[in-house]
Amino acid sequence: MGMYDSVIVKCPNCGEEHEFQSKSGECFLGVYTLDNCPDDVMINVNRHSPYKCDCGVSIKVDIPSRKAIIVSGTS
Predict the structure, then answer these.
(1) pLDDT, mean over the chain
(2) pTM of the entire structure?
(3) For the chain, which residues make up each domain, given as ranges?
(4) Read out DSSP for 6-67?
């Protein structure tokens, strides 16, 4: 099993929390939010995006703004 870090991302539509995994950075199984995530971990945060939330929208992280966004055309 590979090592990774997790970033907890809230759906901007319903607020449900999702775990986004990153394989950049130290990969010591760290758990972060968008507010406290190191820059090197953020580089790879969208590796499995877009993520389909249970509320029906697809989300990804806008890395420069460090915000979850709804991806249009995929919900």
Answers:
(1) 92
(2) 0.88
(3) 5-70
(4) EEEEE-TTT--EEEEEE-SS--S--EEETTT--HHHHTTTTTTPSEE-TTS-EEEEETTTTE
